[in-house]
Amino acid sequence: MWPILVVRGPSGRPCIIRKMELVRVVPTDPPGTFRLMGELDVSNVEEVKAQLADGLRANGQLTLDTAGLTFMDSQGLRMLIQLGRLADETGSTIQLTNCPPQVQLVLDVSVPNGIPGVKIIKNEE
């Protein structure tokens, strides 16, 4: 069972949300390709990082399709930096594709020179 997060619902009453329900990591083809959907934040980033690090080690590369990512906080950015280091250390590659505007803004402002070990493939305007 995933850890839970207690938040206030619309009525102000406590609601329980499983942390991994905020984000989905869906393996797709080819191996080492994952689709990220939902909100990547401090509440779930460690679980996501563990899953992606395992995928990187197993496949020697990662392709992360972020089209369905609706939110990413600084901990999501930290995760990408840590995965980039792991890719560099193991001679692997990471590609980040289909960044929605809100994720691209976080990347552009926070890491304007890119992330070592991570190739960010920008959407064509």
Structure write-up:
The chain has 125 residues and is of the alpha/beta class. The chain has one domain: STAS domain (Transcription Regulator spoIIAA), CATH 3.30.750. Helix content is 34%, strand content 35%. The protein is built from 3 helices and 7 strands; from the N terminus they run ββββαβαβαβ. It has a 5-stranded mixed β-sheet with strand order 3-4-5-6-7. Strand 4 (33-40), helix 1 (45-59) and strand 5 form a beta-alpha-beta unit. Helix 1 (45-59) packs parallel to helix 2. It is globular and about 45 Å long. The N and C termini lie far apart (42 Å). The relative contact order is 0.15. Mean pLDDT is 85; it is low at 1-7.
**Amount of helix:** 25-40%
Assign the CATH architecture.
Answer: 2-Layer Sandwich
- Class from secondary-structure proportions: alpha/beta
Shape: globular
Residue fraction in strands: 35-45%
Order of helices and strands: EEEEHEHEHE
- The overall pLDDT, averaged over residues, is 85
Give the uncertain stretches in residue-range form.
Answer: 1-7
Which CATH top level class fits? Alpha Beta
Q: Order of strands side by side in the largest beta sheet?
A: 3-4-5-6-7
Profile the largest sheet.
5 strands, mixed
Q: What is the total tally of β strands? A: 7
- Find the CATH superfamily: STAS domain
CATH topology group: Transcription Regulator spoIIAA
Number of helical regions: 3
Measured between the Cα atoms of the first and last residue, the distance is 42 Å
In terms of topology, how is this protein built?
Layout: E1 4-8, E2 14-18, E3 23-28, E4 33-40, H1 45-59, E5 61-72, H2 74-90, E6 93-97, H3 101-110, E7 118-120
Parallel strand pairs: 4-5, 5-6, 6-7
Antiparallel strand pairs: 1-2, 3-4
Helix pairs in contact: 1-2
